[in-house]
């Protein structure tokens, strides 16, 4: 499935993080972006990986889990969201 850059720019502009960002800046973001589709169960990254990328979810959902030192598990399901990995 291919999304035209103009459509992608409009979709990204609707995400709260990017609202108010100049169209020229969104255009640069889209031009620098790499689109990738993931299969169910596939990992984007693992806990403690260095924060080298930002992911923008255009459709579907993602489950985020973090294992704490006390062996607790924090889970969050994101749909059509944007998040940035923090180190």
List the helices and strands and how they pair.
Layout (H helix, E strand, L loop, with lengths): L4 H9 L9 H10 L21 E3 L4 E7 L5 E7 L2 E3 L3
Antiparallel strand pairs: 1-4, 2-3
Helix pairs in contact: 1-2
What are the defining features of this structure?
elongated, 87 residues, alpha+beta, two-stranded antiparallel ribbon
- Report, as a whole number of angstroms, the end-to-end distance: 32 Å
What's the mean pLDDT score? 78
Question: Structural class of the helices, strands and pairings?
Answer: alpha+beta
Classify the helix fraction into a percent range. 10-25%
Number of helices: 2
Percent of residues in beta strands?
15-25%
**Spatial shape:** elongated
Element-by-element helix/strand order: HHEEEE
Q: How many domain modules?
A: 2
What's the alpha carbon Rg, rounded to whole Å? 15 Å
Strand order of the largest sheet: 1-4
Main sheet, how many strands, which sense, barrel?
2 strands, antiparallel
Question: Low-confidence segments, ≥5 residues, pLDDT <50?
Answer: 81-87
Number of E strands: 4
């Amino acid at each position: 499935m291919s999304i035209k850059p103009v459509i992608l720019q409009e979709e990204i502009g609707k995400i709260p993080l990017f609202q108010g960002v100049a169209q020229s800046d969104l255009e640069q973001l889209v031009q620098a972006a790499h689109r990738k589709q993931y299969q169910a169960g596939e990992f984007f990254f693992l806990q403690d990986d260095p924060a080298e990328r930002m992911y923008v979810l255009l459709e579907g959902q993602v489950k985020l889990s973090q294992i704490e030192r006390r062996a607790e598990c924090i889970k969050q399901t994101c749909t059509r969201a944007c998040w940035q990995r923090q180190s």
